[in-house]
Amino acid sequence: MVSLGMQAEAVDVALRASWIAGDRADLEMAHACRRAALWLLRRHDTGDHLLKLELHRRLGEFEAAAAYALSIQTLSPDPRIAQVAGFQLKLTRAGNDARHSMVDVFALEQAN
């Protein structure tokens, strides 16, 4: 796919494969698919910083995830993006590598 110029599609396939593997409790395969997606994102520098942050956190790479989160919070002109990065930073600092959704982001905001 990548050699055909279909980088976004390749990332999408890797992400979907990681979700399926995670749902089947195959953590080794889920991590391998997340690593593939992260490699593709880095290789083609897509600028998907929130996705890279999420992948680092889900892989348990908390130092890298925290660095991305802080950078995004500082540099993003969009407060919604900064809010998601802040949520990710809280998860990262707690050592949380679990699946979360956007609903979780906004539920936390309403609780505070």
Describe this structure in words.
The protein has 112 residues and is mainly alpha-helical. The protein is built from six helices and no strands. The chain has helices at residues 7-23, 27-44, 49-58, 62-75, 79-93, 102-111. Helix 1 (7-23) packs antiparallel against helix 2 (27-44), helix 2 packs antiparallel against helix 3 (49-58) and helix 3 packs antiparallel against helix 4 (62-75). The longest helix is centred in the first third of the chain and has 18 residues, at 27-44. The protein is globular and about 40 Å long. The mean pLDDT is 90.
Keywords, separated by commas or semicolons:
112 residues; mainly alpha; 75% helix; 0% strand; globular
Short description, anyone?
With about 110 residues, the protein is mainly α.
Write the element-wise H/E pattern from the N-terminal end onward. Answer: HHHHHH
- What is the rounded distance between the termini? 44 Å
Radius of gyration: 14 Å
Q: Percent helix among the residues?
A: over 70%
The averaged pLDDT comes out at 90
Structural classification: mainly alpha
Give me the count of strands: 0
Count the helices. How many? Answer: 6
**Poorly predicted runs:** none
Q: How would you sum up the major sheet?
A: none
Envelope shape? globular
Oligomer: single chain
Strand share of the residues? Answer: under 5%
